[in-house]
Design goal:
single chain; 4 strands
Amino acid sequence: RAPNTSTAHRSDPCVTSEESETRLSPPRTNDRHNALRIYELETRPTMPTTIAWILLNLLISNVLLELLPGNVGTFFLGMWSPALTAMLFLLAERQPFTQGLAMHVGQRRVYAIAALVPVIVAGGTVGLGLVTGYLGFSEGWRFPVGGALGTFLVWIIASLGEELGWRGYLHRRLRHHKHAPLLIGLVWAAWHYRQVFGAAGPRYALFVFTPMVFLTSFVLSELVERGHSVWPCALYHGVWNFLRLKVLAGHPSRGAPGIFSSTAPQLTEMEGVFGLLVLAIISASFIGSWYRAH
């Protein structure tokens, strides 16, 4: 990672207004140099603004969305509320979305890592489930070839709404703090608590879901730092949700079972105990990389 030199640039009397304008302009190409240059630009964060954005999103997720009907529109509104609020704050701060949300393409090799990690976690989770006997194959399951691509794209789009907020707006403001992934993970977990507490109970929410969110936060923080872009994070998030909700588990109550059926879902799902164990092993390298850089 390149050092943050924006403060020095701002105070350097030798920097002309033309050079300053060039540094604050979006990149004209998506090559690696420009992606890194625009990613390292100063975001001019203020702690009161950051706290206000966090509190607003927690209010929307845990209070306001509860008042709306549970339909597809509410689902997308919830998933995109971090992005929409971030855009409103950036407009108020007069900052471009490309810079403030890390929306440039970035380094393409990171996309492969982003897609591969959820696949490895899924494979390890299934392996543990089959070995322990808690997981078995569903009868009569057929891969929904026709709807799979559409569902995958839907999850990518929905996940992008979250990641523009967490790894775009919030990470950009906390990235120089040593424990930024933990702080973001805490906010991200609390943002989900209304739904998770209601669906799975407090023990799962506190002792399985929350540690998993913390570990995932380190992985995604490293992805956005390595790729200088939020797009790999959206890919990771979308692949994860697609595998977890469409392929492996499915929706048996709606007549759409996944590949496997489980006698202990909180153990065998990707966001269960087995998934947490596999992710803990994989995320160790990401956590080490983060703290070595900070």
